Structure formats: C-alpha cells, structure tokens
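pls ignore typos typing on phone
pyridoxal-5'-phosphate + seq
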Amino acid sequence: MNFAQRMGRIVPSPTLKVTAEADKLRRQGIDVVDLGAGEPDFGTPEHVNVAAHAAIDAHFTKYTPSAGILELREAIAGRYREDYGVSYAADEVIATAGGKQALYNLAMVLCDDGDEVITHGPFWPSIPDQIKLAGGTPVIVPAHREDGFTIHADPIIHAITPRTKAIIINSPCNPTGALITEEAMTAIADAAARAGIWVIADLTYEKLIYDPVPHNLPRILSERLRDRAILCGATSKAYAMTGWRCGWAVGPKAVIAACNALQGHSTSNVSSIAQKAAVAALTGPQDGVTAMLEEYRVRRDLVWEWLLEDPRFECVKPRGAFYLFPYAAEAVAACGLRTTAEFAEALLQEAHVALTAGEGFDAPGYFRLSYATSREQLREGVTRIHEFVHTRARAAAARG
Ligand SMILES: Cc1ncc(COP(=O)(O)O)c(C=O)c1O
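k done
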C-alpha cells in the first residue's frame, strides 16, 4: 500500500491490541480473564454521571472552544493549585481527548525532523511512537529491575545532546509503577533549563501513589522551569473515566496556544458532555479517588504475593499505577517458549488469560499484569497462569 512513510515508523498500540484479542475470544463465548487492560474496573463516580446527564438535559451538546470550556480549564488549574500549590491561568491549560492527545499535541508542536526526545524505558508505547510520528527520534534511557526501575537523573542528563528538544518523564510509570524522586526531577529541570529544552511530565497516574512519598513534580517544574515545563494528566485513571476521553496539558501560554492551533485542525474540543463530567470529577468530592487507591493497594499486595508463589517469576512491588511488571524469563524458558510475546499469546489461547507482553514496552522477558480488576478475577488469573506454566513445563521437560 502506498501509505505515508510515517506509518512505517509505528506499530499499533500493543495494549489496545491485547484488549481487542481478549474481546474477540469473549465474543466466541470464552471466559477470558483480562489482566491486559489499563483501565479501572470501577464505575465512574455517580456525581460525575449526574453532571453528564445534566449537560445533555440542558442541551449542552454543541461545539465548545477547541481548548475546552473556561469552567473546565479553571477546574484543571484549580486541582493543580489545591493539590500541588502551583498557579496556572486558564489560558495555560488545554483540555484534550485523554492524556494521550495532550502528549500527541506536544510531540507535533515541539518536534522537527531529527529532533531527539529523551525518555526512560520500559515505557508506555505511545510515548516513543508519537515522537516518531512527529519526525523526532526517541532516545531511551533504560531503568533497571535491580533498583526497582527507579528513574535516575544522571543518565537522562547525560543523554542530552545539541539535538535534544525535550525530556518526557512518566511518573508513576506505566508499566513499571516506579516513581522519580523530587531530587532527580529537580536535577533534570535544572539541566533542561541550562540546555534550553522542554520537560514534559506525564502525570496520568499521579493520584495512584501508594506511600506518602514526596512527589510534587508540578511545584518543582513550575519553580525551576516555568517557561519550558508542561504537565500532562487526565481524568481517565484517577476517576475511572477512560471512555470519556478527557485529559489536559498545562504549561506556558505559547505552547498551549500552539497545541490549540493543532487541535483546532484535528479533533477540536473534547466532547461537551465529557467536559461537564470532568468539571464534576475535578471539583467534586475526592474521597472516591482515595477509596479506589486503597482497593488497588490491597489487590497489588495480594496479586504480588500470589504470583511469586511460583519462584520462576520475579517482581518488584510497584509504588504507583496499577500494574505488576514481572520478569518471567525463567517461566518462559521452562514452558519451552522463546519470548514473552509467545508466552502471552499461548497463555491467551490456551489458558484464556490476557496479559501484555514486555516486548511492547521495550522490555523483552517481562509482562505487564494489570490489577485494575476484581480480586476474584486476579485470583483466577494467577491460578490459570500457574497451571499454564506447570503444565507446559512438565510437557517441555518430558520432551527433554
Ligand atoms: C503513561 C500513560 N500516559 C498517558 C496515558 C493516556 O491516557 P488516556 O488517554 O486514556 O487519558 C496512558 C494510558 O494508558 C498511560 O499509561
């Protein structure tokens, strides 16, 4: 096919692919345990649903300004003021179709052909692929299992070259659950200020941090790099609103205006109804967020313990987000398989458990297991994984 060359630079989102495959099996009547999806199993909070119904009843169903209604942009700025003590005006905020579009807009606005954008791996696959679509080159600084995939400042700063345009930090990180420390973020912000480059903080999982560790990245960035730092977030994970498609970018007025110019020629505004729902989520009671976090903590501890009952899996306990990211090379080899991609495929077809293979996150040998699902599903999923490995390993050993 004579598609544009840019399409040759990317692959379909591996996480969405797993969901689609699991759905296909389910439609055939198969009982699939889906530990692949990166989305909360909780319902959207009722007061948010009520706000959306009210928007429809009030016929709030027309175009809005492409950057989002003022009420929403003020609600986003208000949340950052209340949670982090930072001050942004409404024209420093754009509402986007999920956090994904905020990052996509920025890749398109900031990258020229050949520009380098530094980020850390294992990564959420859309980060490098969006950079590639924009003509840039992702430069991946690896994090390591041995120290819990901690995102260190030094290797990131060392990766800066005259071609570097931006650094993207995702903390808490999908898929590893790791956090960056405030010290490391400060060092990166200062290095970026010296080099005249942008820093983008992907804070999609900012509400999902298990221990009360200092993690005020917005304050650090707005104090040390106010004119070149952008905060990206979304209602998706914190408020169980993945399908509503509402996220944002918060940063200097000029870059937000550029994102708006781009968005004005692509998707325009986030659905007017979703915008009203997001206002309710951001300005309404926040105790639902804490309740969900507490449940995720219980699930994290349970599923971590269960999985490691088979010593062929190794796994650091994640500090944020809702994924385990186990190292499974020994289990994969015992099964007579070569890669975690093969493992995930066989597991889905034979044991009907959906996981995302590490290959998609630049981490062969690993897989991502989402615990944003019920304890019962997690128990069933891990039981099936163990049985699958046990059965396969016995067969492989018998074959010699
Ligand atoms: C690291 C990271 N950033 C951004 C997003 C975008 O989220 P959404 O577009 O659903 O708001 C996701 C979603 O999985 C993510 O994992």
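The two ends are 45 Å apart (CA to CA). Residues 38, 98-100, 124, 170, 174, 202, 204, 234, 236, 242, 247 surround pyridoxal-5'-phosphate (CB under 6 Å). more later
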